[in-house]
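dude i think i finally got it to work??
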Amino acid sequence: MRKKTKFFFFGFGQTAKYFIKEIRKTKKKYSFCATNTKKSEIKYFDNKKFKSFKFHNEKYDKKLIDELIEADYVLISIPPYKKKDLVLKKFKKTLKNSKFSKLIYLSATSVYGNHNGKWVNENSKLKSKTKLGVSRKLVENSWMKFRNETKLNINILRVSGIYSKENNVLKKILKTNIYVKEKKYFSRIRIEDLANIIKKIFFSSNKNLLLNASDDKPSTNVEVANYAAKLLKIKSLRAVPISKFKNRMIKEFYKDSKKVSNKKMKNKLKLNLKYPTYKEGLRNIFNHLS
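look at this
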C-alpha cells in the first residue's frame, strides 16, 4: 500500500487552503495537519478530516510536535511576531530532529523596500524600511542561518501581493469607489498560481531555493484600478491621496515602488502561470462575480 504524503501547515489561511485544492488535482495520497490561533480540534476542509492544533504567539498544543516530526513537507505562512519567527523560536530543536524532505517559508517582496519603480530580482539589495519589510528580512536571515547550520532543505518564497476571488480590487472598488492617487509599481500573484508554485517547489528536485512569486506584469496601482473600473463600467472613480488614509498598513505599503522579476522562478520550476497578468486574473474574477 502506498504511503500517504504528510503535510504540516503552520497557519491554515487562504494560501494553505488553495494549496490543498491544488494537491487534490494530483493522484497523490496525502494527509495534513495545521495550526490555528484558537483551539485544538478535528476539522474538515474539502471533505477531508485533519487535526488542527492551537498555536498562538508563545503558546501551543504540545501534541503537534509528534505530527511535525513525522511530516514529509512543511509550509510556514505565519507572519513575523516582534521581528522574530515563532516557528523557529519554538520548534527549532524539533525541526532539527524531524524527517521532513522540504520546508517552505513564505516571505514577502516587502523585503526589497523602495526601488523607485525599478526592477528587482533575488540578488537585489534588500532596502526595506517599513516595519513589515524589516521584520521579513530579519526572519529570512534567521531561516538562512538555520539552514546553513543544519543543512536541511529549507526554501524561501518571496510572495508578491496576493489576490483571489475572495479578496481583490474589484470588490474594493465596488465598496469604496476610490483608489490611491500616487502612482506606485507593484507586483501581484493570483492565489491559484501561488498554490501551483508551492506544489512545484515541494515536488521538484531543487533544494534550498530563494524565489520570487509574482506574475509577468508589474503594474501601477492606477493602471490596475482603472482596468477594474473599466470591467465594472464605473466612470466616476475617485483618486484619493495616501495622506487621507488613516490605515497605517496602507500608508506603509505605498512607501515602496518596484517591479519584481519572476524569471528565476519560472526557469527553476519550469512553469507557466495560469494568470500571467492582472488583466487575465481580474477578467476571470469579473466573469464569475455573483
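The chain has one domain: 5-163+188-218+259-274.
im so relieved honestly
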